[in-house]
Amino acid sequence: MKIYTRTGDEGKTGVIGGRVSKDDIRVEAYGTVDEVNAFVGEAIVRLDPAIHADLLQDLTEIQHELFDAGGDLAQAGKNRRYRVTAEMVTRLEALIDRYEQECPPLERFILPGGSPLSAALHVCRVLTRRAERLVVSLCREQETNVEVRRYLNRLSDFFFTVARVANVRAGMADVEYKRGVRVFHTDEKKDQGTT
């Protein structure tokens, strides 16, 4: 099988159900999901499996789910078979809750950084937000699997959380945004009347 086909030389590409312009919103959406997947791979090669065995397993599963999400977004035909489900969103929420238990209370906005793994996971987070914005636009213009939009929304929260976990496990503090006041408060401080 040849890698190059020359079929895209005129600025068109194939989707499931036809051909569209390479800058079609559908192509932008699943192309950006593919970018997220590539950067998840980058994050994976930065982690130490001895320290992050759980995270390695979860990120590997997410790579498969992102491939499913891209496939869902690439469907423009009438007979669509979607793979991203509400159960996948629920699973991400459970992962976020579990990983969040490792993190110190969040009081200020944080900047991407700290450990190399944390920085890589923040790149995943911001690319996921971009993919989500494109899927929002796609959902407005064309029919697609709305569960992908929900999945990406939760996935960006997952990446934020595990970026913090990566710093915790590396013995590093989050890089806090120092120019603002504390914007997040723990329940304990609220109970004491502290603002």
TrEMBL record:
<dbReference type="InterPro" id="IPR036451">
    <property type="entry name" value="CblAdoTrfase-like_sf"/>
</dbReference>
<keyword id="KW-0169">Cobalamin biosynthesis</keyword>
<dbReference type="InterPro" id="IPR016030">
    <property type="entry name" value="CblAdoTrfase-like"/>
</dbReference>
<keyword id="KW-0808">Transferase</keyword>
<comment type="pathway">
    <text>Cofactor biosynthesis; adenosylcobalamin biosynthesis; adenosylcobalamin from cob(II)yrinate a,c-diamide: step 2/7.</text>
</comment>
<feature type="domain" description="Cobalamin adenosyltransferase-like">
    <location>
        <begin position="3"/>
        <end position="166"/>
    </location>
</feature>
<dbReference type="Pfam" id="PF01923">
    <property type="entry name" value="Cob_adeno_trans"/>
</dbReference>
<comment type="subunit">
    <text>Homotrimer.</text>
</comment>
<dbReference type="GO" id="GO:0005524">
    <property type="term" value="F:ATP binding"/>
</dbReference>
<keyword id="KW-0067">ATP-binding</keyword>
<keyword id="KW-0547">Nucleotide-binding</keyword>
<protein>
    <recommendedName>
        <fullName>Corrinoid adenosyltransferase</fullName>
        <ecNumber>2.5.1.17</ecNumber>
    </recommendedName>
</protein>
<dbReference type="InterPro" id="IPR029499">
    <property type="entry name" value="PduO-typ"/>
</dbReference>
<comment type="similarity">
    <text>Belongs to the Cob(I)alamin adenosyltransferase family.</text>
</comment>
<dbReference type="GO" id="GO:0008817">
    <property type="term" value="F:corrinoid adenosyltransferase activity"/>
</dbReference>
<dbReference type="GO" id="GO:0009236">
    <property type="term" value="P:cobalamin biosynthetic process"/>
</dbReference>
